[in-house]
Amino acid sequence: MLVSWLWRLPRVRPSGQQRLRNYLNWLAGIAAGFHVLFLLIAGIFEGFGKSPYSFSFFGIVTNLIYVSASLLGNEFARSFLVNHLAKKHATITIVCVGLLFTLLNLQLAQCTDLNKIIEFTRFFGTVFFPSLLENVLATYLAYAGGFLPALIYRGLLQAFQWFCPILPDLDWPSKTLLGSFIPLFSLFFISKIYMMESRQIRRSSLEKENPLGWIGTSVVSVLMVWFSVGLMPIFPSVILSGSMEPWIKKGDIVMVEKMNGAEAKLGDPIQYRYENIFINHRVIEIQEKDGKKLYRTKGDANKSADPDLVSPEQIKGKIVMVIPKLGWTTIVMKTFTGGISPQGEKFFDN
């Protein structure tokens, strides 16, 4: 019934050139594949988890009907709206229609409990901005090529989310980075290629921009952000107290190398997690209880050891380098952001 009703909507011709519609379909598929590939790569670093969706026969059929109906409805309506409204101000219309579909697809439960800065930041980073950029890209595809390229792009992403039995289990900084950067990069890339093929810009002008240059810059930018949020084997952390003086001072940045917590040795300076904070202290004693190692830690400048033993699961890594003074910028910014660290959590060093 939904498909029949949508089929009766007045036809609005896509604004793009007809000869390039198949080309856009391929670009939409490549963009979705690019997105899934990067999610899988991130999953290799951070791990995978079981999909929350049912994989019984009835569950698969039910989800298939739901996802298909939702996609068809969204993409028919998106194509109709953007091509009906985008007569003069195409860019503004594409963004507004993308925002509209973002708001329509938000679940009310996702918008609750946003009174804390960290929850507000996580919501916008992992839900709102990725959804907005995905919808803006889908709207651009619908504007240039009709509902089909938008359906291909979002359909492949939804198929991965709903029908893949294992999914990348990413921290929220990773979700923010990948969910925002990949659709934005794809939008930039597709629009440039499309304008070149439709001769809205000259091929020579695009070549002068040296695509390898901005692709390389983008990749380096991604790697730098991954490094800063802890996706690489070594990641930075800012020291907010003097408990490890004179070796590590307040305002320094330490480089932490990820490690198996059970491999920590006596005298190792480690970073471990205690509730929602990260602590950088030295191992001063190793105990064993029920065949499991437990670690006593202490700050070099502290008179007494930390009150609680540290389990291997709490250990994030070993401090391998100290960069003096470079963390003061983060400390100043912390005043305005409620203590959010480069890894996205409340960060204190005891």
Automatic annotation (TrEMBL):
It is an enzyme of class 3 (hydrolase). The keyword Membrane applies. It comes from the Bacteria. It is found in: Membrane. GO terms for cellular component: membrane. The keyword Mitochondrion does not apply. Its EC number is 3.4.21.89. GO terms for molecular function: serine-type endopeptidase activity; signal peptidase activity. Keywords: Hydrolase, Membrane, Transmembrane, Transmembrane helix. GO terms for biological process: signal peptide processing. The chain crosses the membrane at residues 23-45, 52-69, 89-106, 127-152, 172-191, 212-235. SUPFAM superfamilies: LexA/Signal peptidase. Its main location: membrane. NCBIfam families: sigpep_I_arch. This is Signal peptidase I. The lineage of its organism: Bacteria, Bacillati, Bacillota, Clostridia, Eubacteriales.
